[in-house]
Design goal:
single chain, alpha+beta, 3 helices, about 15% helix, DUF4469
């Protein structure tokens, strides 16, 4: 496996952004757990592209094809029970579960194989030199609405920001963690007029995604000021929250003429 490198090469590492999430212990003590802010995932295509940009004489497709061959050999080696040294770490096979005696056989009900990754000395050295931005931000778990609008017949947002046309029964809602999920009665989307007297629930959610909803109404909303109200138990891990979480957003319905 790879050995440690000169520490001078690790001094220019970029800081990593973090998000903090609130945790409560059984005794009521509150603390915050840090998570790396979600960044892009780098796959072999991206790695190959970066290598080629570094003025490599080998084509990008060659790197990708070669990696595919190497990966298949790694799978085959593991299937034979061999350890695989990847340079930056080693893959090895362990056995989980207990055996009743020295003559006992492997029993899938009690035993299982486990592929373990052991980092190299250089990988552990990198871990020790990683640093985070001094400023952190809270994890965005609650639903947040940032835009409510309609689209024209060509699929473009209407010119006025956060406005809905009174002749369009389809309303787009943009935000984060707004997917409507859960069996609580308040897990739904509805629109309330400024005076609070009119409440409209969509006949159907054409789109129900984490960051985008498309609501289809039986009849378009009337011109005036409205509020979109949303309740959901959605969790990005799909382990629903026990209680509903809510958000609301004010927008304007304009006359179509």
């Amino acid at each position: 496996m790879d050995k440690e490198i000169d520490k001078e090469r690790l001094k220019k590492l970029n800081p990593i952004p973090l998000r903090l999430s609130k945790q409560t212990m059984p005794n009521g003590t509150v603390y915050y757990r840090g998570n790396v802010k979600a960044l892009k995932t780098v796959d072999i295509q991206e790695i190959a592209r970066r290598i080629v940009e570094d003025r490599s004489e080998i084509r990008e497709s060659t790197f990708i094809h070669t990696y595919g061959l190497i990966k298949e050999q790694i799978y085959e080696a593991l299937a034979r029970g061999e350890n695989v040294d990847l340079g930056f770490g080693q893959l090895s096979i362990r056995v989980k579960g207990q055996f009743e005696s020295v003559h006992d056989s492997f029993d899938p009900e009690r035993n299982a194989f486990n592929i373990v990754f052991t980092p190299s000395a250089r990988t552990r050295q990198l871990e020790q030199h990683l640093r985070a931005y001094k400023q952190t931000e809270p994890t965005r778990r609650h639903p947040v609405l940032t835009e409510v609008c309609t689209y024209d017949s060509m699929g473009h947002r209407d010119a006025a920001f956060n406005t809905v046309r009174s002749d369009n029964p389809y309303i787009h809602l943009i935000g984060s963690n707004i997917k409507v999920m859960g069996d609580h009665p308040d897990c739904k989307l509805r629109f309330r007029s400024a005076d609070g007297e009119t409440v409209v629930e969509p006949a159907v959610l054409v789109l129900n995604e984490r960051n985008h909803l498309l609501a289809g109404l039986r009849t378009p909303l009337t011109p005036g000021e409205w509020t979109a109200e949303l309740g959901t138990q959605y969790n990005a891990s799909y382990r629903l929250y026990k209680e509903s979480r809510y958000t609301s957003f004010n927008f304007t319905v304009t006359d179509s003429e």
